[in-house]
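Supplementary Methods. Inverse-folding protocol.

Structures were first reduced to a discrete structure-token string of length 151. This string, shown here, constituted the complete conditioning input.
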């Protein structure tokens, strides 16, 4: 009886192997955070998805079809994830400060690619930049640079 209870508690305390608990790779983590930005205004536009694919291909040296597959996987993960802390942790742990600032620049680029400066996208970028430990001054500087066309 006691052994049964011990096994029950042990099973409850041991996390099940699932894709949600596995640590994502850096490429997927970056893609999920970028996908969060384009989903912030509740509209997924083809221009944003194409630009996201282009950004990921350039950042990680992926061929076009692999970049599109990564975008698809990231959008699925974004939709099914309860929170994004594991993705944020993967980026914070795997990227130095300059790479995180470059990621914020890419977020602005995605938010503005449709020609619409949506306040929901701006809020999402602001929040993600804070969680990525990017200084507010760099957040503002990257926005100004992207708005001026200096991506």
């Amino acid at each position: 009886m006691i052994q049964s209870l011990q096994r029950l508690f042990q099973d409850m305390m041991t996390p099940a192997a699932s894709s949600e608990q596995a640590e994502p790779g850096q490429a997927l983590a970056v893609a999920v955070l970028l996908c969060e930005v384009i989903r912030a205004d509740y509209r997924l536009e083809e221009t944003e998805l194409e630009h996201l694919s282009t950004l990921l291909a350039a950042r990680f040296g992926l061929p076009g079809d692999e970049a599109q597959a990564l975008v698809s996987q990231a959008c699925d993960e974004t939709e099914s994830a309860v929170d994004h802390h594991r993705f944020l942790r993967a980026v914070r742990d795997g990227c130095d400060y300059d790479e995180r600032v470059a990621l914020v620049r890419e977020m602005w680029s995605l938010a503005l690619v449709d020609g619409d400066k949506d306040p929901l996208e701006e809020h999402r970028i602001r929040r993600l930049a804070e969680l990525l430990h990017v200084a507010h001054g760099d957040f503002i500087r990257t926005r100004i640079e992207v708005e001026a066309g200096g991506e």
